[in-house]
Amino acid sequence: xxxxxxxxxxxxxxxxxxxxxxxxxxxxxxxxxxxxxxxxxxxxxxxxxxxxxxxxxxxxxxxxxxxxxxxxxxxxxxxxxxxxxxxxxxxxxxxxxxxxxxxxxxxxxxxxxxxxxxxxxxxxxxxxxxxxxxxxxxxxxxxxxxxxxxxxxxxxxxxxxxxxxxxxxxxxxxxxxxxxxxxxxxxxxxxxxxxxxxxxxxxxxxxxxxxxxxxxxxxxxxxxxxxxxxxxxxxxxxxxxxxxxxxxxxxxxxxxxxxxxxxxxxxxxxxxxxxxxxxxxxxxxxxxxxxxxxxxxxxxxxxxxxxxxxxxxxxxxxxxxxxxxxxxxxxxxxxxxxxxxxxxx
Length: 345
Fold this sequence. Notes:
Layout: E1 7-8, H1 14-24, E2 28-33, E3 36-42, H2 43-51, E4 71-72, H3 79-86, E5 90-94, E6 100-105, E7 120-124, H4 134-137, E8 144-145, E9 148-149, H5 150-159, E10 165-170, H6 174-182, E11 189-194, H7 200-206, E12 216-220, E13 223-225, H8 229-238, E14 243-253, E15 257-261, E16 267-272, E17 275-287, H9 303-312, E18 317-323, E19 327-329, H10 333-343
Parallel strand pairs: 1-2, 4-5, 7-10, 7-12, 10-11, 14-18
Antiparallel strand pairs: 2-3, 5-6, 8-9, 12-17, 13-19, 14-17, 15-16
Helix pairs in contact: 7-9
């Protein structure tokens, strides 16, 4: 990519910085004013800003780090040493006028991922009605994304972090799912827990009570999260959360002009193609075993209802926001095609 892919101006709104970070896939943008380096914003900065309730329409300058690390062009041979010293993955190289002439990136990203070794619960019991007619033939967990099923993509991602034990809640076409994994060339540590009736994501999770002694992951079977799972677990534990929801930052432009109307039927305000920003639940969680105790037995209930119950009771339920592009969701046909393009390119 060109330098321009990593450079924005300080007057842009935060939401535009998020979009630029999503596009360059490096988790960072540099702020330049009149061509001169003045600040830096990382995806971590964005996450902390959102958790503090920051306005996504505010100027990015208001939340930027105004003391960015950089190196002069005549010292560019020291770039890797400087990056290692400050534990950063990129470093702008500037001239005497503080103009960015190059951005130096870590040449060999660390291949080692933190080995968490946590168990993973995969909710795979639903009918996948939004993916009809595919799911009339195949259960949702076995829908292929390239040469693997979506569930195998999920398992492979967790396995990179040493999470190799999976408890899979199954119901719809359960024998099909079991046969696929039992006859698969790749042997995986999977235990199947069968629902006797449809229980919802909360009721199905209750079937795992007593199986875990410590922190565990839970994931829906139709989503993939491209984030640092080790960082998510650290956030969860440092905040002493009973549960942490991984949530995506969404930005939507309404393709119509909207009208606000008074109770008397008079137009009060017109707005052309308004933009909305919000945080949405991805279906990926870090949970403590105690979370399962609050789920009623033998009851159809969604995990979001359990979350709300705990929130109302004053329990610590955390939110870990990620960029929209880090959430792949095949729950709908258009998103399924997007996931295929992303994982099979």
